[in-house]
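Sequence design from tokenized structure. All designs in this work follow the same two-part layout: the structure record, then the generated sequence. An example of the structure record is given first.
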């Protein structure tokens, strides 16, 4: 009989169209599969507004709608569907939690016929859909106004008897479903409790039978636990130190100067081994001496500078821990550090010793007899080795970057700054001149008849002459001045703060000095003396204008050309020319210019 009823119901619902209004694609697809498996035709809508359009165009047999949706929720959708005469008779099943009384009231007011709670039970959902298909609610029934008391307040609800009955049935079915699930859960929990109690009982009996035999084992395990705890704490400290070490390595990678790195190393050292004061010394490659650059903690001091040859930790490049009472190795003590216990760790990269890292009070051999303290000591030694490697690599990287920066800024032949550096220096000095209101002077100079030197003595002689002039200019300028090789045999000097008169005097001093001292030899052949021509300009900047800077350089170059045309070996600048010596006046220089040959 049940099979016949099921077959009859299947035939009655077969081909019915179900409109599913659900914003979740996953939930919509699950509903579609459930309903199509029961023989229904399913159409989908992503929200209430789209559901109204689909309801008008497809005239579904039943609508299954979610409540919580964007654009238009399920309550609003149901209410607007009931207001449209063309589709108001379509049964609506709300698919929602509906755990609150307020939700039930909203469902009644919106005109919903029944609801199924989420997560839905597929047989229950199909049962409710089949009931709506085979026996749709009658819409012509009179509606009654009911006074419903919810959460302490009375709400007036107007609904038909069948609608109320359907909602009551839905509530009853959902409640029964939840009761069934709760009963199953209680049975499961009860079974688990019985099983757990049985296991606890058996285990308790086993423990009672063996407790007398576990005394020694418990003590052993307690000792092991203490050792494991100590090891774990040591690992935690090691992890913290490694974290600090990793941070140190990353910070050193972005340092642009050794001074910045020294401060970072000081901060890291106080965090890594706070109980051990120490210091960092770096080696000067030119003098082969070690110099203390940073200290931390209550460091006992020592000599600020000592010879690398006198230090056992630097000379062989191995870890060294001098013993004050019974020294294992003889040390000259020139550093002043070997009188106190401590660990000296060299900083080595590619067989080059860059410096020395020292932690006072730390020795190579452990002073304790306990395994825990020995483990901590071993971890400290390994950590110092790792720290030394990290610091050494960081300092080597900074030194390499400094060398590369110098190579990118310096002219390889003369050692002076190159055009690339000059462009940045001009903008920097111009900005400083704008802020201070001071003048900025430029001197452009060129070697007179330089081509003859190359023709007569060869390009090696020309290169040696350029190196000599570069060295001379470097020694002649002030600390704040900049000497650059502008190109070929041309050089440009930047004199921040110098006015026109002072710049002219400096140019004249350089001209006289070059003529007096430029005597060099190449393969026994004497070269020189040489002379230079110089052009001077001074500018006052109101704003850091690129065009103004270009004009200043061009003015200095034009002054240099005027000095060439006036016979070379002289200084010229806007409105004033200085002769080849103090005895030659400006007028004489201008008068004699037409009688001299010129070289660009």
């Amino acid at each position: 009989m049940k099979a016949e009823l099921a077959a009859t119901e299947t035939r009655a619902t077969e081909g019915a169209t179900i409109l599913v209004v659900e914003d979740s694609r996953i939930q919509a697809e699950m509903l579609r599969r459930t309903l199509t498996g029961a023989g229904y035709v399913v159409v989908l809508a992503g929200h209430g507004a789209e559901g109204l359009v689909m309801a008008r165009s497809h005239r579904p047999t039943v609508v299954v709608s979610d409540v919580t949706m964007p654009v238009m929720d399920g309550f609003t959708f149901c209410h607007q569907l009931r207001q449209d005469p063309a589709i108001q008779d379509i049964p609506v099943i709300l698919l929602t939690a509906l755990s609150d009384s307020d939700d039930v009231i909203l469902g009644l007011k919106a005109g919903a016929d029944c609801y199924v709670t989420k997560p839905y039970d597929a047989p229950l959902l199909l049962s409710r859909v089949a009931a709506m298909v085979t026996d749709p609610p009658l819409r012509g029934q009179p509606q009654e106004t009911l006074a419903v008391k919810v959460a302490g307040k009375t709400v007036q609800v107007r609904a038909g008897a069948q609608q109320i009955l359907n909602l009551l049935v839905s509530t009853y079915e959902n409640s029964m479903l939840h009761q069934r699930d709760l009963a199953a859960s209680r049975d499961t929990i009860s079974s688990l409790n019985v099983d757990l109690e049985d296991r606890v009982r058996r285990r308790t009996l086993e423990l009672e039978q063996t407790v007398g035999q576990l005394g020694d084992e418990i003590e052993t395990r307690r000792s092991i636990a203490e050792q494991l705890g100590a090891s774990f704490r040591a690992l935690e400290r090691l992890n913290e130190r490694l974290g600090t070490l990793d941070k140190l390595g990353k910070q050193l990678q972005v340092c642009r100067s050794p001074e910045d790195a020294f401060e970072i190393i000081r901060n890291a050292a106080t965090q890594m081994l706070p109980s051990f004061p120490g210091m960092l010394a770096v080696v000067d490659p030119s003098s082969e001496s070690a110099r203390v650059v940073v200290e931390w903690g209550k460091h006992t001091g020592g000599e600020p500078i000592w010879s690398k040859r006198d230090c056992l930790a630097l000379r062989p490049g191995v870890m060294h821990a001098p013993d004050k009472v019974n020294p294992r190795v003889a040390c000259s003590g020139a550093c002043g550090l070997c009188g106190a216990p401590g660990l000296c760790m060299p900083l080595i990269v590619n067989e080059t010793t860059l410096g020395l890292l020292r932690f006072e009070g730390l020795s190579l051999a452990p002073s304790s007899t306990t395994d825990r303290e020995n483990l901590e000591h071993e971890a400290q030694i390994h950590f110092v080795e790792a720290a030394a490697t990290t610091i050494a690599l960081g300092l080597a990287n900074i030194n390499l970057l400094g060398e590369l920066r110098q190579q990118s800024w310096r002219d390889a032949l003369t050692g002076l700054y190159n055009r690339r550096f000059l462009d940045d220096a001009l903008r920097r000095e111009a900005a400083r001149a704008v802020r201070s209101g001071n003048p900025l002077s430029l001197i452009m100079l060129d070697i007179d008849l330089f081509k003859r030197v190359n023709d007569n003595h060869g390009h090696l002689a020309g290169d040696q002459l350029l190196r000599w002039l570069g060295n001379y200019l470097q020694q002649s300028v002030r600390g704040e001045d900049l000497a650059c090789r502008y190109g070929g045999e041309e050089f440009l000097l930047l004199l921040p703060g110098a006015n026109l008169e002072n710049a002219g005097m400096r140019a004249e001093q350089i001209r006289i000095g070059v003529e007096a001292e430029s005597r060099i030899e190449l393969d026994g052949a004497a070269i020189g003396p040489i002379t230079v021509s110089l052009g001077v300009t001074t500018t006052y900047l109101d704003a850091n204008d690129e065009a103004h800077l270009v004009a200043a350089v061009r003015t200095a170059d034009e002054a240099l050309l005027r000095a060439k045309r006036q016979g070379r070996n002289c200084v010229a600048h806007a409105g004033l020319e200085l002769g080849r010596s103090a005895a030659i006046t400006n007028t004489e220089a201008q008068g004699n210019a037409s009688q001299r040959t010129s070289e660009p």
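The CA atoms of residues 34 and 123 lie 9 Å apart. We note this feature because it recurs in several other targets discussed in the main text.
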